[in-house]
Specification:
This protein has about 180 residues and is of the alpha+beta class. The chain has 5 helices and 9 strands. The protein has a 3-stranded antiparallel β-sheet with strand order 3-4-5, with helices on both faces. The chain is elongated, with a radius of gyration of 27 Å.
Length: about 180
């Protein structure tokens, strides 16, 4: 491992040098490597993407390796922020005394809250996400959902009032809104 004619050990600390030697050793065997590491490399603490690519000469043998390192701290920060936002949204929606579900234009469920799950006798999001209403709901409710979703997807606000269905919802009325 050399950096423009200098040994890596003159640029990085011992831990980074050991990591570089491990990765470059694999690359000298012909392996293309991409790893995300949390390290400072003498900069600010953060995440880096390390790529090590073998360089093959005319003979086809590995003559050297390219080591490419870039900061991915901004991407990791954005992923953390999205994950935290999703956790907050789920915390809020799971504690509302109302069913909330989100369907995409193909009418496949993309998300729902805990109340939705419990009212229909379901336990996990996996029982809903990616499924069509007919996979989750009763046939009469499927027609209501299709009508309501179609209007909402046209940008109309739809209000409804109907008798609830589902295990925990028997003999209750549901009033709701659907918005696109």
């Amino acid at each position: 491992c050399r950096v423009r004619g200098r040994g890596v050990n003159t640029v990085w600390d011992a831990v980074a040098v050991a990591g570089c030697q491990t990765l470059s050793g694999r690359a000298f065997e012909g392996e293309k490597i991409t790893e995300e590491v949390q390290d400072d490399l003498g900069l600010a603490n953060g995440w880096r993407e390390i790529r090590v690519l073998p360089f093959r000469g005319e003979s086809g043998q590995v003559d050297g390796v390219y080591l490419i390192s870039r900061s991915i701290e901004d991407e990791k920060s954005a992923q953390r922020a999205l994950r935290e936002r999703d956790e907050r949204i789920h915390f809020l929606t799971d504690n509302l005394p109302a069913q909330i579900s989100y369907v995409e234009t193909s009418l496949r469920y993309q998300d729902c809250n805990q109340r939705f799950l419990s009212d229909y006798g379901l336990s996990t999001l996996d029982e809903v996400v990616g499924k069509l209403p007919q996979d989750v709901q009763s046939p009469e409710l499927v027609e209501v959902i299709k009508h309501t979703a179609a209007a909402a997807l046209r940008g109309e606000r739809v209000q409804y009032d109907r008798r609830a269905t589902g295990n925990a919802a028997a003999n209750r009325r549901r009033r709701g809104d659907a918005v696109g």
